[in-house]
Specification:
By secondary structure, the chain is mainly α. About 65% of the residues lie in helices and about 0% in strands. It has six helices and no strands.
Length: about 140
């Protein structure tokens, strides 16, 4: 039985490639808030159904209606916070945007460029010297 559980765990485990481990993703906070809020709301709904299904049992006392109302309010606040965080994250990415930087000196460059003007000239000269092996007449 234990080997079966280990096999399932190893088959479902998500391995992060090394190049993805160093990237920064701004969405986890909003996604975490949304997921946590939705899970809390789902849990509150399940507990409410149990509370209404078995009103005379001892379990109904563990999840009283005021506690469920507070849990529902918490879930709604988390979902709203996740939506606001997602909106601000998308808005900030449009306003700030990724800055293009020169590969060598890290100065700001126009979109689509790889090098700043000075390093572009040096790279073009180097490539020109490498590909043109003929000598000029003097």
């Amino acid at each position: 039985m234990f080997s079966f559980i280990v096999t399932i765990f190893l088959c479902t485990m998500k391995l992060t490639p090394p190049h993805d481990a160093l990237t920064v993703n701004p969405d986890p906070m909003s996604s975490t808030l949304l997921r946590l809020g939705l899970w809390i709301i789902l849990l509150v709904v399940v507990l409410y159904v149990l509370h209404e299904t078995y009103p005379a049992s001892a379990m109904a006392e563990y999840f009283a209606l005021p506690t469920l109302q507070k849990g529902l309010a918490l879930g709604i606040l988390l979902v709203a916070g996740g939506l606001v965080a997602r909106l601000f994250g998308k808005g900030a990415s449009k306003v700030v945007g990724p800055k293009n930087r020169c590969v060598i000196c890290k100065t700001a460059i126009p979109p689509g460029a790889i090098y700043c003007r000075a390093h572009l000239r040096s790279m073009l000269n180097r490539e020109d010297e490498r590909t043109h092996t003929t000598r000029t007449r003097s």
